[in-house]
Each structure stands twice: as C-alpha cells, then as structure tokens.
Amino acid sequence: MVGLSYRRTRLSGAVRELTRQVRPAVEQFIQPLFVAETLSHREAVPGLNKVWRETPDSLLEQIAADLQHGISKFLLFSTPAHKSEAEFDHAFTAKQLAAVKHEFGDSVWLAADVCLCSATTHGHCGILNEARDEVVNEASVDALTNAALAYAGAGADCVAPSDMMDGRVAAMRTALDANGLQQTVIMSYSAKFHSGFYGPFRLAADSAPGNATALRDRASYQIDPARPSDALLSSLRDADEGADILMVKPGLPYLDVLAELSREIPLPWAVYQTSGESAGLNLLAREGLADLGRVNVEAWVACLRAGASMIISYDARHAQHWLSQQNDR
Ligand code: PBG
Ligand code: ZN
Question: What domains, with CATH codes, occur in the chain?
C-alpha cells in the first residue's frame, strides 16, 4: 500500500497558493475612524497602531491617505462635545459624515456607528431610568432611531447600531424607509458580546460607563460570553427585522460563534477585530515575540475561514502592505 502524502501540496509556494481556500483581500476591509469635537490636534489612541482620535480636518486627510492604501470602506465613531442624559444633538456627527461624502463621494463607502455611549453623561449605550440602575429599551430605541435618521440623511451609506437594545433594527428600517432612505444599509452588531476586549476603544470614543450610576458595566444589554445561543437568537431576530449585514464581535475569541451563525443565517457576515485584540497583537510584536503583519494576517484568515465576508480592523490600513508580505515565494 502506498502511503498518502499530504505534503506534496505543501512543498512549493506555487502549489500552496493554488490550494488555499481563503484569501484575504484589501477590498474586504473596513477601517474604523474616530472623530471628536473637542480636539484641536489629533491624538494617538493608546495601544493601537497608527489610529487617532481625529479632528474634523485630520479626518479628511486620514481618509485621503487610506485611499492611497486601497482602503475605501470606513466605520465612523464620532464623539460630540456636549454630553446629555436624554436629549442628543446629532449635528456634529452629521456634519462630519456630510463632509466626508462631500469630499470623496462614492469613492468611499461610509458606515456610521449608531450608539449613545459617546453622547451620554454616564457612558451607557442608552437612556437610564430614574433610579439610574437600568437602561430603558423604548426611549433608547427612539433616540437611536433619530440618530440613524440624522446620519443616513447626512449621507452615510450604512448605519451600524452597536447599542444592543431590542427592536432597534426594525425601528430604524421603518424610519429610514419612511424618510426616503430606502437605500441605506443596516449593519447590525447582532452578536456583540459583553467583552473585556474593548479597552482602547473606550478611551478613543470617550464611552466607558463610569461610576456615576449603579450600573457599572454593559452586562444587562450585551451578550454573555457563555451564551452562544443568545447570539443566534439575536442574529435571527435582527435578520428578521431587516438587517442587511450581521456581525460577530469580538473576532478571535468568538470564531466558533461566527462559524455556526454564518452557516445558519445566509446573510453577509462582518467580524469586528476589536481594539483589545489589535492591542494584544501590537504588544506581542513590541516585545519581539511576533511579527505584527504575520499574526494579523493569520487572525484575518481565521475570520474568513469561519465565514466572514468583511473584516472591521484597526489595522485595515496596513492590510495591503502586510498581505503583500505574506507571499511566500
Ligand atoms: C459602543 C461600542 C464599543 C465598540 C463599538 N461600539 C464598545 C463597547 O461596547 O463598550 C467596540 C470597539 C472595540 O473595542 O474595538 N457601543
Ligand atoms: Zn455604545
């Protein structure tokens, strides 16, 4: 009997290239961007690699630079100067979205993150009850829907609710359609877990839930890491409510969820490589323990294997360079 060889197709660069089943490509990436009203100069986000809290001017300059590196899809997080309990002014964010679309038109695809945590005094993703120990669903959904309308009206190609309230996708789809915004895509953070991997982001978006309320964390609205079936139910529900794109977040620690859900629900799936995941890889590389490009590409390949068709990554702007370095012959 002749022994089977699996090594024949590993021996040369040529045959390895031919036999790969997933191939990350720069066009699959979405680059998150931060803009803050209070800044006069842009500031680097701690832990991340060339990610800044931009000013309105530097935001446009950064997008122009990213376009040079093949990145044309963006997810904007905007932090207004004024914080509130329940009355939110969307003018600053809407103005930034309009400015980006005015400058770059359809050469960029622009998604707006929709949440309230950068605008609330307490840093929660919705409106609190009077006792300040609970996020109330209906009032929060109304406020989120107003934000989505303002962002889509300003020209965002996509609105991406990250708040985890019940029913926000249906409310947004109904409101968008009723206001002539039938073409605006909804990308729902449908499987967003209550994770410890969001650290650098909260500094960047100024959105950490503080000590000002009895509610210290987001466990009462984000999915428990030990309940994958909740992620399936929430994603089925969001699909039913009209979400166009679903998402698993974080990425690597939840690949099992991505693999199962993307097989179960035939919609496009996004994966969010969170700020903590990116920062972890940066630290490995900084300690000389890993090649930053190599480990990022390996993480991206894993996300594609698990069924993602798009990757939201703080390192998207390095993808073209890092992917070209992985060519192994
Ligand atoms: C807030 C929001 C978070 C992220 C996106 N939108 C953090 C959170 O829920 O606390 C995570 C981003 C990241 O860590 O990269 N709605
Ligand atoms: Zn939030």
Answer: 23-328 (3.20.20.70)
| Per-residue pLDDT reduced to its tens digit, 89-129 | 999 999 999 999 999 999 999 999 999 999 999 999 999 99
Query: Would you say residue 292 has pLDDT above 70?
Result: yes
pTM of the full structure: 0.97
Long-range contacts of 142-146, Cβ-Cβ distance < 8 Å, separation of 24 or more: 142/171, 143/86, 143/88, 143/116, 144/114, 144/115, 144/116, 144/168, 144/171, 144/172, 145/171, 145/172, 145/175, 146/88, 146/90
192 has catalytic annotation = yes
Residues within 5 Å of ion ligand 2 by Cβ?
115, 117, 125
Query: For residue 116, how far is its CA from the centre of ligand 2 (angstroms)?
Result: 5
For residue 193, which of 119, 129, 276 has the smallest C-alpha distance? 276
To test the ligand 1 pocket, which listed residue (135, 193, 198, 224) has its Cβ within 8 A of the most ligand atoms? Answer: 198
pLDDT tens column, 232-254 = 999 999 999 999 999 999 999 99
| Ligand 1 site, CB within 6 A | 113, 115, 117, 125, 162-163, 198, 201-202, 207, 218, 274-276
The pLDDT score that the predictor gives to residue 150 is 98
* Rounded distance from Cα 271 to ligand 1 centre (Å): 13
Model confidence at 193: pLDDT above 70: yes
